């Protein structure tokens, strides 16, 4: 009888609905070498230590196997190559690229970029929920929180932010799916997945190249236009760097937020007392606390799969990870580590101290966190306010294939109707204001 390791079970789709008991088993050995030769780290303090350790590189070209094979493979296949994205580099290159991206994304140079989008986020969500009215499936009022809402919202926002036509979504979604699949350790070896990821990023880069060519110098106030302008003290990104990083932001800007919103609604439906508190609107800071607890309890990014490697031997938790080894940081396991978090398997937005790994940490702390937070606060609060008597059709729901970017593929919810967005004004166009419950964190 073949032994199936804990890590293999986590990757197996049959455990996608509830991997957390397996993560508890995994934490018993904080650092473990798995079948593909990489090392998985699963406890909170060890993950945090590595996220801040300069000996842990994000440039996978340091892995001997990849350094030897990737260029030759690309040449053989005629695959166009783009430079690594900023999350695939180390300082000082990482710092330069991140500075240039941040200059056009948020504080300190553009503190109003995200905050100015919040009223439009609210309008998008309001109109999407308005569209729930009249959805009849199998004789009942039934909506799919994924297809009817959670996907449409963040993809619309990231397209607006980047300056990408929303109608191009069918074209770039297939390429985005290929990037996500390449991050799944169950779909092949490290070198093969890195090759597929590079190909998918290059395909998205080609899409952006065509988009920029079509503009013929007609620039707007979007992030892409800002990167092209290079309005700072530093030299702007090269065209190839813009294409590579724009492709990354397009994928990351909607894939993870879809899962965060859907995981959030599923969790609220399983905890009706919290859903009811959110609906009552008498706790202005509750939405922010709910989202932070979701990032700990049901994070959209479960682990960072083989996107780190060791520049030197690293001794941690009694294990030496040899130089040149790929490393996976199991963020979801660390955020539920009872050695750091009391009662970790309880969903509790009232936690006094909620330090989590939902957005990673260190120099690679999630670039899009200031956008994902208000998106999710608005989405969950408005769903709580407006859906009448929502209840799950299936629990657990069907899940996506990816174990790393984990979330339901569908979340069917039956409702008794939809409340109007504004009790005194049934107009589908709400006023342009920031909802009082939103704490965007964009200036923090």
Number of helices: 17
Identify the quaternary structure here: single chain
C-alpha-based Rg, rounded: 22 Å
Helix and strand pattern: HHEEHEHHHHEEHHHHHHHHEEEEHHEE
Uncertain ranges: 424-431
Q: For the largest sheet, list the strands in their spatial order.
A: 1-2-9-6-3
Mean pLDDT, all residues: 88
Key phrases:
444 residues, alpha+beta, four-stranded antiparallel β-sheet, 11 strands, 8% strand, globular
Show the helix and strand layout.
Layout (H helix, E strand, L loop, with lengths): L5 H6 L8 H8 L3 E3 L5 E3 L2 H8 L4 E2 L6 H14 L15 H11 L8 H4 L2 H13 L5 E2 L2 E5 L1 H5 L1 H11 L6 H14 L7 H26 L7 H7 L9 H32 L1 H9 L5 H12 L6 E7 L3 E3 L2 E3 L4 E4 L1 H5 L33 H18 L4 E2 L19 E3 L30
Parallel strand pairs: 2-9
Antiparallel strand pairs: 1-2, 3-6, 4-5, 5-11, 6-9, 7-8, 10-11
Helix pairs in contact: 4-11, 7-9, 7-17, 9-13, 10-11, 11-13, 13-15, 13-17, 14-17, 15-17
